[in-house]
Structure formats: structure tokens, C-alpha cells
Amino acid sequence: MEEEIEEEKEEVIEEELEEEDEIEEKEKEEEERKRKRKEKKKEIEKEEIEEKEEDNKIMEEEIEEEKEEVIEEELEEKDEIEEDEEKKEKE
After folding, report:
1. From start to end residue, where is composition biased (Acidic residues) (predicted)?
2. Distance CA 78, CA 70 (A)
3. Helix (H, G, I), strand (E, B) or coil at 91
4. H or E segment at 52?
5. Any idea what DSSP says for residue 1?
6. Smallest Cα–Cα separation from 52: which of 44, 63, 67, 38?
7. From CA 37, how far away is CA 89, in angstroms rounded?
8. Global pTM exceeds 0.90
9. pLDDT tens digits for 18-66?
């Protein structure tokens, strides 16, 4: 009788330990999932920042090109005006 009670106690203790192990394992898995999600989120944010930086760089280049075009146009206009003035002076 005592042996049976002792065996039952041991079984109950073993079951409780197994349950604790399972719970612990599930918690570890959940922590790992959270860590991976957080890591993935950081990676996505990093990629978005890089894309924005690239977009900004492209926009800056476009603005610089437009400035150069405007300067070139102004120079051409100035040259034309000077040529016209020279022609008028010659006449």
C-alpha cells in the first residue's frame, strides 16, 4: 500500500516536472518568436531608411541637374543678348 502511494507521488511529481518543462519550452519558443519579429521589424525599418536615403539622393541629383540646366539656359540667353547688342552696335 505504501509503495503504491509512493509510486503515485512519484508519478505526480514527474508529471508536474514534465508540465513545467513544457511550459518553460513554450515560453522559450515564444521569446524566440518575439525576438525574431523584433529583428525582422528592425530590418524592415533599416531597409525603409535606406530607400528614403536613396530617394533623397536621387532628388538631390535631379535638383542639381535642373540648376545646371537653368544656368546653361541663362548663359545662352545672355550670349544671345550680347550677340544682338553687338549686331546693333555694328549697324
Report:
1. 1-30, 61-91
2. 12
3. coil
4. helix 2-90
5. -
6. 44
7. 77
8. no
9. 999 999 999 999 999 999 999 999 999 999 999 999 999 999 999 999 9
Cα–Cα distances (Å) from 12 to 34, 35, 64, 65, 70, in that order, read 33, 34, 77, 79, 86
d(CA 27, CA 37): 15
The position carrying cell 544671345 is 80
Q: Rounded to 5 degrees, what angle do the CA atoms 21, 24, 28 make? A: 135
Hunting for cell 519558443 — which residue is that?
Answer: 29
Q: What's the one-letter identity of residue 27?
A: E
At 66, the amino acid letter reads E
